[in-house]
Amino acid sequence: MVRCPGQDQRFWKPEDIFEVKCPGCGGSVEFFKDEPKLKCRKCRRIVLNPKINLGCAKWCKYAEQCLGIMKESDEQPDGSKSSK
Q: How many CB atoms are located within 10 Å of the residue 27 CB?
């Protein structure tokens, strides 16, 4: 399956790969823009991607195949539930 341009790494910009500090230990966690969460290598805490934007997943019929997520998910990037 062909991935959409927003998820195809050939079209990414340098800022689409970035680091954030782990809120648990202050260690560095490197994210790709499409990763919703990662485990800190230092303290093993789950760190959520603060910059994730998968708006296309809300309407694209291939979202589940492309991203491996349910397009109707009500979970926000910060782990909270949306109020639909």
A: 15
Encoded tokens for 66: 């492309």
Express each pLDDT in 23-33 by its tens digit. 999 999 999 88
CA triplet 60, 84, 23: central angle to 5 degrees? 85
Q: Domain map of the chain by residue range?
A: 9-67
How is residue 75 written in tokens?
Answer: 């979970």
- The answer to whether residues 71 and 60 touch, using CB atoms and an 8 Å cutoff, is yes
Single-letter amino acid, residue 37: K
State the pLDDT at residue 71: 42
Global pTM reads 0.59
Dist CA 35 CA 52 (whole Å): 7
